[in-house]
């Protein structure tokens, strides 16, 4: 349910945009959602805010009065946000973040620990879960999502980067079991796969010419945890398809090598998402700024594989 403040912000945007359609585009909402929001506001206030015709939209006298006061109120909020951004007031309260288990532990937790250490009155709660949470219903300030995002007019998203899935094994395993020169050779090797909902998803690969291949692994080992798969590969037990951010260090130190290096997956986007609100708390803004500053270069460096 929209808060009163967010509804007022929508009202101000409609006035300044000139019509519902332009406001909907600016706010990334549907025209119907804008119309319903204004109707609820008018019902709550007991007045008509707009004079509507098929071609024009203009304020009533009551609408003009309400707009002037609403505009000043929002300006005050923006002024307060500016003061916070200048560091005159520290972030406070509880910041709740949802992140995928492994990616969250490796990449999100260190950044948020640093943020908490910089603000004495800020608490950070990190929930590691691979399911997609409902930010509003579950009470999260922001979440990290890997993969394509569904349309959701109630969330705002900022892309942090991409990752790829790579085939990998240890040099010891390949020396013992033989090289992999072609995709068909995978059928003669032990593969370790991640089951999902009772079946094995295909490994989606593309070559350097962007030609796509879907390979169903003939998995001897199936583990529903990426870290367990990585540990098993490092123990020389087979070939796996793992995210570049999880095996980047091992590829650089040589404990893992990329199998069929001319093949990788398509890019999977990584986003930070947060609820669409008329204002953003300082704690959320600082967390997003830190993610935007540090994650893109870290994810980009994962592509520099020797």
Task: Tell me what you see in this structure.
The chain is an alpha/beta fold and 306 residues long. The chain folds into three domains: 1-85, Arc Repressor Mutant, subunit A (Orthogonal Bundle); 93-161 and 268-302, 3-Layer(aba) Sandwich (D-Maltodextrin-Binding Protein, domain 2); 163-267, D-Maltodextrin-Binding Protein, domain 2 (3-Layer(aba) Sandwich). The chain is 42% helix and 23% strand. It contains ten helices and 14 strands. The protein has helices at residues 4-17, 20-27, 31-45, 61-85, 101-118, 135-138, 171-177, 226-234, 244-253, 282-301, and strands spanning 50-52, 57-59, 93-99, 122-128, 142-146, 155-163, 165-169, 191-193, 203-206, 212-215, 219-222, 239-243, 257-258, 268-275. Strands 4-3-5-14-6 form a five-stranded mixed β-sheet, with helices on one face. β9 (203-206) and β10 form a beta hairpin. α1 crosses α2, α2 (20-27) packs across α3 (31-45) and α5 (101-118) packs across α10 (282-301). The longest helix has 25 residues, at 61-85. The protein is elongated, with a radius of gyration of 25 Å. The N and C termini lie far apart (51 Å). The model has no long low-confidence stretch (mean pLDDT 89).
